[in-house]
């Protein structure tokens, strides 16, 4: 079982869009896939049409009790693809993590109960660099980082690199890729070229800026369902193939 986090310190960069489309392609490629929606906003749960559990304090139980995650698994409309929906209590993850002993491996412990059932766990993460983020870094084999090719995004990526270095996380876990890339904008072109030069490990495939990604909210489905032949769909598929080769490698 491999764990792939869609993560960024920055909000609104395409973490959820990526988690949803990549989970879809992974499942379609035969991986028994679970998307765990860690963001209390519940956006990926919404896209996959799954409802949040009604249980109180579910966030605490998820982190505390081994095997709890499995109890909240919901089937999606797609073969091989299940979802653990977000819950409002997830907004308190950091407080909960403090309460239950400041450990950095709570999430990885919670995911251990899924080993037999799934080949791939995809985490849709909230934008944070808190205690939850440290749990995410510990639990993940790959931390996939969407980067919009702009100055501010470059800065937050550098902050993440610095944090990884300070905290002694392996830089090799980080897989950045460009998203919302707009080839008509000079700034995007220049920033992408400069960053690719500096960080050779950026993924080759990028996701273009596209209204088809925005339409996921209207159709509540991965792009392949409603815009099969379009560039955004092909780009997510190509990105998935590149990530798959890293997962297997
Ligand atoms: N490639 C893209 N082209 C155009 N719009 C996009 C693209 N990717 C994402 N968006 C849009 O940008 C907004 C933010 O995307 P998304 O929710 O995936 O980001 P996020 O990083 O998960 O945000 P948050 O930090 O709030 O969880 C959404 O409205 C989404 O439809
Ligand atoms: Mg999101």
Please provide a written account of the structure:
By secondary structure, this protein is α/β, with parallel strands linked by helices. It has one domain (2-248): Rossmann fold (3-Layer(aba) Sandwich). Helix content is 45%, strand content 13%. It contains 13 helices and 7 strands. The protein has helices at residues 15-28, 43-47, 58-64, 68-71, 93-99, 106-112, 131-139, 151-167, 186-198, 211-214, 216-219, 223-226, 231-248, and strands at 2-6, 33-37, 74-75, 81-84, 120-124, 142-147, 174-178. Strands 3-4-2-5-1-6-7 form a 7-stranded mixed β-sheet, with helices on both faces. α8 links the parallel β6 and β7 (174-178). α1 (15-28) packs across α13 and α6 packs across α7 (131-139). The longest helix has 18 residues, at 231-248. The protein is globular and about 50 Å long. 45% of the residues are buried. Bound molecules: adenosine-5'-triphosphate and magnesium ion (MG). Magnesium ion (MG) binds next to α1. Magnesium ion binds at residues 15-16, 39, 43, 124. This is Chromosome partitioning protein. It comes from Malonomonas rubra DSM 5091. InterPro entries: AAA_dom (IPR025669), DNA_Partitioning_ATPase (IPR050678), P-loop_NTPase (IPR027417).
């Amino acid at each position: 079982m491999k764990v792939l986090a869609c993560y960024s310190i920055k909000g609104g960069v395409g973490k959820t869009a990526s988690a949803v489309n990549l989970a879809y392609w992974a499942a379609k490629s035969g991986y028994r896939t679970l998307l765990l929606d860690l963001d209390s906003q519940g956006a990926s749960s919404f896209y996959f049409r799954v409802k949040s559990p009604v249980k109180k304090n579910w966030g605490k139980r998820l982190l505390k009790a081994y095997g709890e995650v499995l109890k909240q698994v919901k089937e999606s409309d797609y073969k091989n693809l299940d979802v653990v929906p977000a819950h409002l209590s997830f907004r308190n993850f950091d407080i909960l993590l403090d309460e239950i002993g400041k450990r950095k491996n709570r999430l990885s412990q919670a995911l251990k109960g899924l080993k037999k059932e799934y080949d791939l766990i995809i985490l849709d993460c909230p934008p944070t660099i808190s205690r939850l983020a440290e749990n995410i870094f510990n639990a993940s084999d790959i931390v996939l980082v969407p980067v919009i090719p702009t100055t501010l995004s470059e800065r937050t990526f550098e902050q993440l690199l610095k944090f990884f270095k300070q905290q002694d996380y392996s830089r090799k876990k980080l897989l950045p890729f460009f998203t919302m890339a707009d080839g008509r904008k000079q700034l995007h072109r220049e920033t992408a070229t400069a960053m690719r030069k500096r960080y050779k490990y950026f993924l080759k495939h990028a996701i273009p800026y596209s209204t088809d990604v925005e339409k996921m909210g209207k159709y509540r489905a991965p792009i392949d369902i409603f815009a099969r032949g379009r560039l955004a769909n092909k780009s997510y598929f190509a990105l998935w193939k590149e990530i798959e080769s890293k997962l297997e490698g």
